[in-house]
Design a protein that fits this description.
The structure holds two protein chains of two kinds.
Chain A (H helix, E strand, L loop, with lengths): L4 E4 H11 L4 E4 L6 H10 L6 E4 L3 H13 L4 E5 L1 H17 L3 E7 L15 H5 L10 E3 L4 H18 L2 E7 H5 L1 E4 L29 E2 L6 H21 L3 E4 L6 E4 L2 H16 L4 E6 L1 E3 L3 H8 L4 E6 L5 H9 L5 E5 L8 H18 L1
Parallel strand pairs in A: 2-3, 2-4, 4-5, 5-7, 6-7, 11-12, 11-14, 14-15
Antiparallel strand pairs in A: 1-8, 6-13, 10-12
Chain B lengths: L41 H15 L5 E5 L14 E4 L5 H11 L4 E7 H7 L1 H9 L5 E6 L2 E2 L5 E2 L18 H4 L5 H6 L4 E8 L3 H20 L4 E7 L3 H4 L3 H15 L3 E4 L5
Parallel strand pairs in B: 1-2, 1-3, 3-4, 4-8, 7-8
Antiparallel strand pairs in B: 5-6, 7-9
Helix pairs in contact in B: 1-7, 3-4
Classes of the chains: A alpha/beta, B alpha/beta.
């Protein structure tokens, strides 16, 4: 374990990537993730990797496709408009089953939007993003410490399932400074052998390795899709991660991820001081989504409140999980505005009283 | 082709055992029926690359990047590790590979729609960085795979399925001379324009291809760019012979053959 350091979220993520054995980084400047690019430009080439500033996010993701296809740990990072530009490449990488780490430090949209933090890219992150039926494993950190921790987890999951893993964070977590410690991580021990598929040069001892997402025959393409869906099902069964707080005695459960989970946590504490019984579920993996715990809790609690920095995106997944058993309410701010704990408390009080009223 | 190539195994000859073998399929060119139209230059271009890989003995260290276009299945014929890029992104993919495996030989194989339209930015920036890779640019002035639409390289007046009255430069712009354009970039090490429509041009194109790969192996300069001006009998609505004649009569007046930029003399 390293000593405790005070770092920005973007920098902590970049430092963790180097410690996780990052070999290739390709990125393009965009606020609010540029510190990540800058940090790696300073350090990666001296510490065993290759840094390159691409001419666009489109080029960057395709460089990732090439380098990750060579079987080494590769990543890119960007923010919302840049992530949209990458979707072509992400779809190809997902289909070709290449492991890599993607980071979207989300800002408010749509369009050029704002450089303030947002969760408006939730749908894009968890429903695929580009064309075709595919998913990414999506990790949502809520602290600078998790910005670092999820890099190791992300690379390991990418290598395990041969797919891109996306860290979905936001401009505030990227920019804020907090103490962080880097875990001991043995790069060699965690190395996965990709020689059976990686394009590293065809040795006479083996047949050619070809990386492609092109399968002209419909039946073959369907087989590929069936294989991908099977993989996503395995992931749904094995890789769900979430944090549950105060769920035992709660009447209302807040569901919030990332930065908003911290605000919601404060709101939960304040509401409980006022005599309400509020608990919380913080999804850590947005895909696979923690459906089961929400369904279980829907048998015990009265209501859910989903809080997001968007117009209501994750709330759809919560409603799917709960399947109409209990009401699922929503509170959101948009365009780069972070909700205050007091706004959420007001909403909770309103929900609580309406429930009492209806009784 | 004006001078047809004949596979040796098809020759019926009683004294075959006593004859010297002067021609054979390159070991790295997979013996599989090509999907290209009769008379198309792609197959010859494929062969030249694989001959080069055989001669330089670099099969084990070479990684190819296939484009989107008629040669999208290049890896069906080239017995090397290959990656299939999205349309226009081949040089970005090649950059990624070369940056993490700098001791490997990396090349892209791209058509004119891929390299000169949708991938123009990637092409220019890859060469401007002087990535030590080889770009094989097969320019046939048309989108072949999608059915013969106008390409950025289509000559003025030429009729295609999206320029039914011929390419009107006032509304559709002018054909792009990529080789000349990129030759002014400091990162371009060797730029040449070749053809594969005659025995003589095939021999010259082979020499150029060999040089390009050799330059990458030497690792002294930047990007080597070999343009191969090819025919597209199907897209041009011509017979193979007519299309080769058209190359001589019209195309090479605009796309002049020969070296455009040579490496600096040491």
């Amino acid at each position: 374990m390293s000593e405790k350091l005070l770092m920005k979220g973007n920098e902590a993520l970049a430092e963790a990537a180097i410690r996780a054995g990052l070999k290739g980084y390709f990125g393009y400047p965009i606020t609010p993730q540029s510190e990540l690019l800058e940090y790696l430009s300073h350090h990666l080439n001296n510490r065993g990797g290759s840094f390159l500033q691409a001419e666009s996010e489109l080029a960057a993701i395709n460089m990732v496709y090439g380098a990750a296809g060579a079987g080494v740990r590769t990543m890119t990072s960007t923010s919302s408009p840049g992530y949209s530009l990458m979707q072509e490449g992400v779809s190809y990488i997902a289909c070709a089953e290449i492991p890599c780490l993607l980071v979207n430090v989300v800002r408010g949209g749509p369009g050029l939007g704002t450089i303030q933090p947002s969760q408006g890219d939730y749908f894009q992150a968890v429903k695929g993003g580009g064309h075709g039926d595919y998913k990414l494993i999506v990790l949502a950190p809520d602290s600078v410490q998790e910005m670092a921790d999820f890099v190791y987890l992300g690379f390991d999951l990418a290598d395990k399932y041969l797919m891109p893993v996306l860290i979905l964070t936001d401009g505030a977590l990227g920019q804020m400074m907090e103490p962080v410690t880097f875990p001991d991580y043995d790069v060699e021990k965690n190395k996965v052998d990709h020689s059976s598929w990686a394009t590293t040069g065809k040795l006479t001892s083996r047949s050619q390795n070809v990386i492609t997402s092109l399968h002209i025959e419909a039946e073959k393409m369907e087989d590929i899709n069936i294989h991908l869906q099977k993989k996503y099902k395995t992931i749904q069964e094995n890789e769900v991660r979430y944090e549950a707080i105060n769920t035992e005695e709660a009447d209302i459960i807040i569901v919030a991820f990332g930065l908003v989970a911290r605000v919601a946590h404060k709101a939960m504490e304040n509401a409980n001081k006022k005599g309400l019984k509020v608990g919380m579920i913080r999804p850590i993996t947005l895909f696979p989504f923690p459906t089961e715990i929400l369904l279980t809790l829907s048998e015990k609690v009265d209501q859910f409140l989903v809080v997001e920095m968007n117009a209501g995106q994750m709330v759809e997944d919560v409603r799917l999980a709960v399947n109409g058993k209990i009401p699922v309410d929503f509170y959101g701010r948009m365009g780069g505005v972070i909700p205050q704990p007091s706004e959420i408390v007001d909403k909770l009080i309103q929900m609580d009283s309406s429930k009492t009223h209806s009784k | 082709m004006t001078e047809p190539l004949i596979e040796p195994q098809h020759i019926q000859c009683e004294n075959l055992d006593q004859m010297d073998q002067v021609w054979t399929r390159p070991e790295t060119l997979i013996d599989r029926k090509l999907h290209y139209c009769p008379g198309c230059g792609h197959s010859v271009a494929h062969r030249l690359i694989m001959e080069t890989i055989d001669e330089l003995n670099i099969q084990e260290t070479t990684i190819g990047v296939a484009p989107v276009g008629c040669s999208v299945f290049a890896y069906h014929y080239m017995d090397i590790d290959m990656q299939e890029a999205a349309h226009g992104r081949a040089t970005a993919v090649a950059t990624g590979i070369k940056r993490v495996l700098p001791d490997r030989i990396v090349f892209t194989y791209q058509g004119d729609g891929d390299l000169a339209a949708i991938g123009t930015a990637e092409t220019i920036h890859t060469i401007n960085r002087g990535e030590n890779i080889v770009i094989i640019f097969v320019n046939n002035g048309i989108y072949g795979m999608t059915g013969g639409q106008m390409a950025p390289t289509t000559l003025p007046g030429f009729v295609t399925s999206t320029s039914p009255n011929g390419r009107d430069t006032h509304t559709m712009g002018y054909p792009l001379k990529m080789a000349e354009m990129i030759s002014v970039l400091p990162g371009a090490y060797y730029v040449t324009r070749q053809a594969v429509h005659s025995a003589k041009s095939v021999r010259k194109a082979k020499k150029a291809t060999l040089k390009a790969f050799q330059y990458q192996m030497d690792g002294k300069g930047g990007t080597s760019f070999v343009e191969i001006v090819s025919n597209c009998p199907s897209g041009w609505k011509m017979t193979p012979v007519e299309s080769n004649q058209y190359l001589d009569d019209e195309i090479f007046d605009f796309y002049t053959l020969g070296d455009i930029k040579l490496p600096p003399k040491e």
